[in-house]
Amino acid sequence: MSDTYEPRTVETAAQDFWKRTHAFEVREDASKPKFYCLSMLPYPSGALHMGHVRNYTIGDVISRFQRMQGRNVLQPMGWDAFGLPAENAAIKHNTAPAKWTRSNIEHMRGQFARMGFAYDWSREFATCDPDYYVHEQRMFVRLFEKGLAYRKNSVVNWDPVDQTVLANEQVIDGRGWRTGALVEKREIPQWFLKITDYAQELLDGLDTLPGWPDAVKTMQRNWIGRSEGLEIRFDVADSDVSLTVFTTRPDTLMGATYVAVAAEHPLAMQAAKDNAKLAEFIETCRQGGTSEAELETQEKRGMDTGLEVVHPLTGETLPIWVANFVLMGYGTGAVMAVPGHDERDHEFAQQYGLPIKMVVVDAGVVDALRELQHDLAAGVGADPLRNALRGTHTDAYDANTAVRVVESFEHRVLNEAAFTEYGTLVNSGDFDGLDFQGAFDAIAAKLEADGRGARKVNWRLRDWGVSRQRYWGCPIPIVYCPTCDAVPVPEDQLPVVLPEDVAFTGVKSPIKADPEWRKTTCPKCGGPAERETDTFDTFMESSWYYARYTSPGAATQVDGRADYWLPVDQYIGGIEHAILHLLYFRFYHKLLRDAGLVTSDEPATRLLCQGMVVADTFYREQDDGSRHWFNPAEVAVQRDEKGHVTGAVLAADGRPVRIGGTEKMSKSKNNGVDPQVMIDKYGADTVRLFSMFAAPPEQSLEWNEAGVEGMARFLRRFWREVATHVAQPDHPEVDPAALDGAQKDLRRQLHETIRKVGDDYGRRQSFNTAIAALMELLNHVGKFGDMSDQGRAVRHEVLQTMVLLLNPITPHTSHALWQLLGHAETLIEDQPWPAVDEDALKRDAVTLAVQVNGKLRGTVEVAVDAPREDIERLAQDLPGVQAFTEGKTVRKVIVVPGKIVNIVVG
RNA sequence: GCCGAAGUGGCGGAACUGGUAGACGCGACGGACUCAAAAUCCGUUUCUGGAAACAGAGUGGGGGUUCGAUUCCCCCCUUCGGCACCA
Question: What's the number of CA atoms in the CB half-sphere (13 Å) around residue A65?
Fold first, then answer.
């Protein structure tokens, strides 16, 4: 073993040992507590990137730490192999998606091993393996039979030039990314899973997950969006049809001045039949993409249909408008508009000159009304606003003030902005004077009695559309028969295998282009039929992979082994998955449970969402105004003597480049740092150490090579310290009773560090502070020059313990140093975690901060058990304190034991 | 537009339950070693004033609660993540 740190040698040796001994392959073992640590499975894009390094290092640190805590740790890895990038690569490089994907997996598996991740590779799979997706197809058939999978029309982004469906990310500023054509909305039949049947359970389940970040739970709650309201039927005037709207604000019903329907709403279509202008408008509503962000930010446009509805309370007629912000797919495709009390309706009404009514006022207005109308003591009268404004008053001054309050409020609502808060009803006939809940109940009761309305719980959450018009995905196991309609493929005919040896040159799916592949016979009637050529959303595969890892080789989706391992004890992945993936993941777990395959209600008990990896960006403006981005590796940053950044130049030509800020590593900004280069240069442990040290896990991490060098320096110093120590003569055991002051101090710091590191790895998941504590300890042991017997003994205890404490983060280095310290080659994860010696933590004296009026004026060293009076006296006697208390009265002295003394003077 | 985060020295960050703001690392500066460089080691490093002692200011901005606020409350600004077909 060398005296200097050689990462490559050390890492190869440790990795060989782990591989040779199958160190991380695990089985169910009832004698040990289990720990299932799972990192989100990667898309095999071709090369390890820094986001992977970070995600998987966090998972590996937790896994190794938990194993050192005596748990039976499962940490698996696999590949989210279906998806759009393989199709794009196929077009670009003229290679089949399957071949491209599988060769990427080969390469990345090697990179993962080079990082030293402690995976049980015996459980590996790729989601594009028919052995994997056959179970997904079976589950879908089961859901179809249960009525949880169904088909309906829904809208997609349509590129009219390529004649293809586009993903939202392929729509840029309303145009197709490849063709530049204006994207249109098009309705096509698609398959859906009834996640809304589970909406309440998905909402309630969040309360059973204390180990999930509050931000994620809040986002999921808002996404599910439970709201209680009223469904109200409006009859269309001079006709026998009606339309239904849902509102959470029935208290504002008297302020409804129009209703708005989606462009695809049957009433709109009907009105457009003999109205060419309206038909044209509806046509323009088809333009643009389908994403919510785009719909919500587009200019709000509408047109009168000429049709009218009857207000269910007043009998007045209200116009029906078509509006581009109302969508057929969401809710009923129609909304009642209350411009006085809804921002969007207000904006729309002002734009088109539609009437605005004020029917809710705030407490200040109510007070003013009371003043104006003495007979309102028992509540607000029939038309209090109008009555009040023309009423007679005895006190002219008060009346004027009150009138001004009412008028200015009304002016604001009618002309400036909607009043959207809850308040008291006015201008609402019988409902005047009621508050939100009173008005809700009264109006609901009235409409229910009239058969025009019903209370309803509405969900923002929509059913999960799982159809994709793409080739590289799991085929949907359905056959279309002219007589039997949609028929699921029988179990014994599954899997429906996706052909992999295909030419993928254009935009069209090869299985859609191939007339032979789809030909089949109907499983029901035996007649000629056609297969579904859509494939599943790739979220389908990533929604249940965690369960499959527990049951490798099982003939069913999972088997009894799942009961041992599930739920996942620690799940780790990017915050960008906070809603979609994590909601589908929870939903699918409930589907597995209801199919009798798992017994828990939630798939994962603890969740860690790590931040992004970011880096500086550099560019030069091109002649055409576009930007050419340079990789940080090609650029030299210039600084002044104080360290301020003054500029940057391209290393190749020495000419300046512009600094574009710190952004998420991406191809488009060319600011990605290749982990492979870093591993080759510094070793995996240094890369792991930096990615855990540079930022807390949930924050974004800025890659900075100088920082990486600092980590390499730390590991070299640690190595040297151990090597120097083992060259010393043998030492006796530590005898706590025989230690002098400095030896005691070092030993106390060691045990404080053991306590902190364990807490930071386990409870806090604050790895950066754990590393900082270990660095501090190394700084101290480096200055500890005591070569006596007990000095060497304490140093040995410190260094050997540090090897164990660092092992989760830098396992290769620890593996080597453990041997350097005289142990046989072994798996450090099987060593017990160091125990804190409570006696070593004891102190005799503590330092208290002394403040005068909250400002620090000195410190005082006192015995741990010093009485309060002594502390107060010592603090007040400090010269630095007296300078500020002299000539003033001490009003109060606050003593927080072990922390602070605050002397309040005045 | 809606939902969720974040903002602290030149930089990344620490301060865990309201109690000494800036731990740890990077960078910068000074020094030692060296023929020299690299590496390594030692020291300084929030800002302003001051030779120093020391004083004042300071955690995105504005207000509030408290003996005491990076931490709690209200308003605002900026940046980032998600918005259902990127994964």
Answer: 24
**pLDDT tier, A373 (very low <50, low <70, confident <90, very high otherwise):** low
Q: What's residue A629's pLDDT?
A: 82
Locate the DSSP E strands across A532-689: 535-536, 570-574, 607-610, 613-621, 627-630, 635-639, 645-650, 656-664
CA end-to-end distance (rounded Å), chain A: 68
Would you say A807 and A68 are in contact if contact means Cβ atoms under 8 Å apart?
yes
Does one domain contain both A893 and A827?
A: no
In a domain, A368, yes or no: yes
CA separation for the pair A193, A198 (Å, rounded): 10
Residue A146 annotated as lining a ligand binding site: no
Q: Which of A651, A671, A691 is the last residue of a domain?
A: A671
Structural domain boundaries, residue A160: 149-193
Residue at A119 is within a domain? yes
Number of residues assigned to chain A: 906
Q: Residues A249, A178: one domain?
A: no
Q: H or E element: which one contains A852?
A: strand A845-852
Q: Which pLDDT does position A392 carry in this prediction?
A: 46
- If asked whether residues A270 and A386 sit together in one domain, one would say no
Judge if A560 and A596 occupy the same domain: yes
Question: What value, to the nearest 5°, has the Cα angle with vertex A279 and ends A273 and A280?
Answer: 155
Residue A586 sits in the same domain as residue A632? no
d(CA A264, CA A329): 9
Q: Does residue A159 form part of some domain?
A: yes
Q: Which nucleotide is nearest to A699 (CA to C1')?
A: B6
What is the pLDDT at residue A379?
43
Instruction: Please indicate, yes or no, whether residues A124 and A109 belong to a single structural domain of this protein.
Output: yes
Distance, Å, A250 CA → B76 C1': 33
Q: How confident is the model at residue A438 (pLDDT cuts 50, 70, 90)?
A: very high
Measured CA distances, A11 to A799, A800, A810, A814, A824 (Å): 20, 19, 10, 10, 17
With tokens 């527990």, the residue in question is A550
Model confidence pLDDT, tens digit, residues A55-104: 999 999 999 999 999 999 999 999 999 999 999 999 888 889 999 999 99
- Point out the domain boundary residue: A807, A841, A875: A841
**Strand B proximal to A101 Cβ, under 7 A:** no
- E strands present in A18-85: 34-39, 72-74
How far apart CA A109 and CA A123 sit, in angstroms, is 13
Residue A529 forms part of a structural domain:
no
* Protein CA at A576 to nucleotide C1' at B81, angstroms: 6
Cβ atoms of A480 and A189 closer than 8 Å: no
pLDDT value for A630: 84
pLDDT at A655 over 70: yes
Mean per-residue pLDDT over chain A, rounded: 91
Count of domains for chain A = 7
Residue A278 sits in a domain whose CATH number is: 3.90.740.10
- Each residue's pLDDT tens digit, A305-332: 999 999 999 999 999 999 998 888 777 8
Nucleotide nearest A472 (Cα, C1'): B85
Same domain, residue pair A779 and A885:
no
> Distance (Å) from CA A644 to C1' B11?
9
pLDDT at A387: 53
pTM of the model: 0.94
Q: Which nucleotides of B are covered by protein (CB under 7 A)?
A: 1-6, 10-16, 19-21, 23-29, 39-42, 54-57, 67-69, 80-87
User: A375 pLDDT exceeds 60?
Assistant: no
Claim to verify: residue A103 and residue A54 sit in the same structural domain: yes
